[in-house]
Amino acid sequence: MGDGTNGTLKRDYDSGKNQTYLHSLEANNQGQFFQVTLAGEHKAVSIALDELYVDEQPIQSVGVNPTDPAPV
Hints:
Blueprint: E1 10-14, E2 19-23, E3 35-39, E4 45-48, E5 51-54
Antiparallel strand pairs: 1-2, 2-3, 4-5
């Protein structure tokens, strides 16, 4: 976790939508940005290796196949 630069992720909360965002403010070499949107307010988020841990229920990917390329 950090400010979204230098390989870190920034955590933001939108109270109007009741969503927490984890995102990078830097694009990769293909111009793509990374973002995960979580329902609810998550204050304790930890990232260890390839796993994402939050302060509540396990995370599920909804509506996307993580092995497919991101839509443009």
